[in-house]
Amino acid sequence: MSSSLHLSQIRKWFLQSPPAEWAVQHVRELLLGAMRQGAVPQHVAFVMDGNRRFARSHQIEPIEGHNLGFEALAKILEVCYKIGVKVVTIYAFSIENFKRTKYEVDALMDMAKVKLSQLAQHGELLERYGARMEFLGQKEMVRPDVLDAIENAIKMTSGNSRAVLNICAPYTSRDEITTAIRNTVVDYTKPIQNSTKRPFSESHIARNIRARQLGTVTEGDEDAHNDFARLDDEEWNYTPSNPESKAAFDRIVSIATENIRSSQEDDVSFANSFGRKAGCLILERLKNPSLDEDEKKEAVTATLGYISSTAFAELLSLAERIQDWSPQPDLGSSASTTLYLSSSDPPSAPAAPPVNYPDPETITADVLTAHTFTGAHTPPLDLLIRTSGVERLSDFMLWQCHETTEIVFLECMWPEFDLWHFMPVLLEWQWRRRKESQEQRKRGRSKLD
Amino acid sequence: MARRKPAPRARKSTPLRTMLKSNLHLLIYTLIHAIFGLYVRLRMAYHAIYDRLLAVLYYHHRTPDLIRNDVKALSRLPEHLSVVLTLHDNGDRDAALEELVNDVGELSAWCASAGIPLLSVYERTGILKSYIPQTHTAITRTLHAYFNPTPPSLPPSLSIRSPSHPSYSPPPSHPSSPSTPPIDADVPAPEAPHLNLLLLSATDGRNTIVDLTKTLADMSQRGKISPSDIGAELVDAEISESVMGEPDLLVVFGPRVVLEGYPPWQVRLTEIFHVPDNSEGVGYQVFLRALHRYAKAQMRFGR
């Protein structure tokens, strides 16, 4: 025991001597430079697990373990950025971690505050490698003073564009996916704003089609269209005051709807939306004392396209039964238009134009990816490394890592994790890429033959 | 690969110096990879021998009792075991399919013997989903092969489900129906265990979440829900209902851990097991090691 301690001290002394340090430094540089010659993962994620266990096994305070963990992180970040990794994502704090003792959470937060500003400072790691800091997760869950430190760090590094450091805190992947779903739904519940209003309206086109289908009627057709157009814009406020009138009016509407439907080849929605308006229009004609019976019939035919004489007789008698109809101003005159427009009632809700929403069927996995915390422009996760021998994802990067990502579980604790642990993983990743490309080339060649 | 861009504050470096440096890097890179390639091959060979040895030491001999004996000492067993299988489609689709059905049959028999009630099989293409009745027949045959030599234990009944298909479990057609009285009337016939098999494919992963989002967006557009109603509990309830809950243990039978599109929502806390450099595919020793690992038990050589 004592001899091993002695040995390790000698080793430490030796490694810290200037010539040894110089040599180690150069070997590292050379290795990292060599690694850059092969394929390099663009996005690497780390689950920094094992700080507490490391502290326990070395009989130091848990927070000291976290401190050492941070040192390890700084070293590994340097390695990553040096060999050309674009995005590093680290799992710093889970939403579940709030369940730890208040003492530990507070200590962690205090540490985060100090370390964040340290990382982001000018001339420090992030600036040296042009890395931007991003926070993924529910930032509002942390203490306000820590949040300030976070915002500050983000602001200080926002100008860097060569690399990204994603810090997941307080984060869980399920929360991320849920947030992505929710934000997608919010996006798809926003009506489409037609910035450039098209000069064609749906109702106008529908009316035109109707006019062509009702080719048998030529006279009064034009009038009817204008009337519909007017009805479209203005609210007809005829509400029957007694049950008898109501029954009669409902019947008129149903006859009108039925007629429109039969001439529109069962375009039910069109018939239903125009039935009531057509009913009002017909009633207006029928109640007009200046028209005789033939003229009334012609007018009704013009509105509905076709009306059988029995139906027309029924309409007439129904109109008789409505007593509370106040004669509307003549529809044809321009004076009436102004009268209508001056009416104080603004269009009520049902008359509001239908809202256009984006089609939910256009939602794809890419849309959801764009709504995740990592967003659409982060390169796909190539490598996910978890230390401390726990072989679980623990709610981290689920959406990002479940396809082609290589997931590596390592036995060492996070504070022990350094270049020499990272190197074999990286080499193996490069080795596999090399083998894959060789196989592809071989297959390409055999296809050519 | 991409040449190193000169750092802005680098010393004035001549082109010759840069070239030499990058040549040196390339040399070291090639050297390291030559050595590493050798190391990986040695490691693979070592693993292959080790795995082979374990496979010989632990063999099930198609006997449920032996399997039961192997897992007897374990402190806990997964309620829901999930596996990732790969269809080795090298041009011969029928052979690949047969191999897959065979693997699923073996796995089902091991699970039924060990007493794991739910097995979910993830295979990216989902080819088995279109042959559910045939798969059922094939697996039932395997189960009979395992359970027949030991008359007191009935072959377990099997039902196969996949998220888009209803559960398939035809009534057993073999003679051991309740109408035949048990030979030994004093001992109540042990109740046949039941195994649920769930077939998963790539469409049960992201696509399910996308479909859920579509439905929610549609409902939100029609004013039936407000986006603030959408929480992790709702999503979890819907996804668990339509696909499955969280598996306890996920065994990847490939040489390394790549999930190939496995349902992301459900793997949150699942223990993921794989045998490094596994070259044997679906082997009993891999299955057994996974169970030992799950129970945090050491596996010693020999029984």
UniProtKB/TrEMBL annotation, chain A:
Xref: CDD domains: Cis_IPPS
GO cellular component, one term: membrane
Keyword set includes Aminoacyl-tRNA synthetase: no
Alphabetical list of Pfam families matching this protein: Prenyltransf
Alphabetically ordered keywords of this record: Transferase
Superkingdom of the organism of origin: Eukaryota
One of the GO BP terms on file: polyprenol biosynthetic process
Protein name: Di-trans-poly-cis-decaprenylcistransferase
Gene source species: Trichodelitschia bisporula
UniProtKB/TrEMBL annotation, chain B:
UniProt subcellular location: Endoplasmic reticulum membrane
Transmembrane segments: 20-40
Keywords: Endoplasmic reticulum, Magnesium, Membrane, Transferase, Transmembrane, Transmembrane helix
EC number(s) reported in the record: 2.5.1.87
GO cellular component, one term: endoplasmic reticulum membrane
Region (Disordered): 154-188
Primary localization class, coarse: endoplasmic reticulum
Family per similarity comment: Belongs to the UPP synthase family.
Pathway in which the depicted protein is active: Protein modification; protein glycosylation
Protein known as: ditrans,polycis-polyprenyl diphosphate synthase [(2E,6E)-farnesyldiphosphate specific]
